[in-house]
Amino acid sequence: MPSNKIRRNTPQRMVILQELCATKEHPTAAELFAAVRRKLPRVSLGTIYRNLEVLHEDGFVRKLELAGHETRFDGTTAPHYHVRCTSCGCVRDLPAPLHDKLVTQPVDSAGFRIDGHRLEFYGLCPGCQQGDMGRMPVPDMPEHGSH
Amino acid sequence: MPSNKIRRNTPQRMVILQELCATKEHPTAAELFAAVRRKLPRVSLGTIYRNLEVLHEDGFVRKLELAGHETRFDGTTAPHYHVRCTSCGCVRDLPAPLHDKLVTQPVDSAGFRIDGHRLEFYGLCPGCQQGDMGRMPVPDMPEHGSH
DNA sequence: GTGTTTGCAAACGTTTTGCACAGGT
DNA sequence: ACCTGTGCAAAACGTTTGCAAACAC
């Protein structure tokens, strides 16, 4: 839902969107901050957050509020799902998302009017599957099972 | 995965679990803190957090890390899904959870070994459906669409 | 010129942690 | 006696906000 407010195309805003669209890594605000700072050394973290909010409002970026972790951002706004690696914490897109095997309508909705759902998968990424049990859980902490 | 550590049945731990099992409201740590404090006036919030962590580790409580909100806790450990009301913020259980209409296996998993998924629904609770557009979004802030 | 946006720093809400002491086993 | 668990307070973390100055339009 694009806001009706007048937006200004500041260099900060453009570089943020540009950086976000240039990666498939779903960066956090802090990671984006580091990336943008390389081009605009004087940006502040507050500016990153404010612009991400604006860009989200206007439909240019997606917010990925994955369970138990900082918010990540996605320059691809088309609907798709995500997987998180419980070992290294990386987040990847799932291709071929809405499929006949992926039907998500509760049968009994407890009287709620269901407007949508949020679905995320977790598991081991290709890299972390290579028999290495002793791998450090790096970027983010892994979760304890359950869904 | 119950830890192999020796646990002590302290009054604090028991009251916390008792309070959690006595409600269907999926309280936050702060709400639980208030409830437990009525019975044990000297508990600290730190104790609540530490015990919830232990109880979670031992499989007695479920952690509900719903997108963009504080963690809530659930005394019912059997697998089931949840709905959040985007207006008042309340969280309810979804009965009849794993159904033929609720199949969640990605067709293409991008090379990940999928261990599970997290699924949450959002919409309007029965109370908030009663034509009251002007209702205050109270307990927690509502979300901006997208899934 | 007007009103949005910026940088900075301080504040926020939630959760975690360090510590000395209390208390279960 | 041992070592887990407690209360307290402070810190950590990600995020938001107030403000005066800067700047896009």
Short synopsis of the structure:
The structure is a homodimer of 147-residue chains. Helix content of chain A is 24%, strand content 18%. The first copy, chain A, has 3 helices and 5 strands, in the order αααβββββ.
Please describe what this structure looks like.
The structure is a homodimer of 147-residue chains. Chain A has 147 residues and is of the alpha+beta class. Chain A folds into 2 domains: 78 residues, Arc Repressor Mutant, subunit A, CATH 1.10.10.10; 66 residues, 2-Layer Sandwich (Dna Ligase, domain 1). Chain A contains 3 helices and 5 strands; from the N terminus they run αααβββββ. In chain A, the strands form 2 sheets. A 3-stranded mixed β-sheet of chain A has the order 4-3-5, with no helix packed on it. A two-stranded antiparallel ribbon of chain A has the order 1-2. In chain A, helix 2 packs across helix 3. The longest helix of chain A is centred in the middle third of the chain and has 13 residues. The first copy, chain A, starts with 10 loop residues before the first helix and ends in a 23-residue tail after the last strand. The C terminus of chain A is likely disordered. The interface between A and B is large, with 53 and 53 residues. Strand 5 of chain A pairs antiparallel with strand 5 of chain B, so a sheet runs across the interface. Chain B binds a DNA duplex (25 and 25 nucleotides) through helix 3.
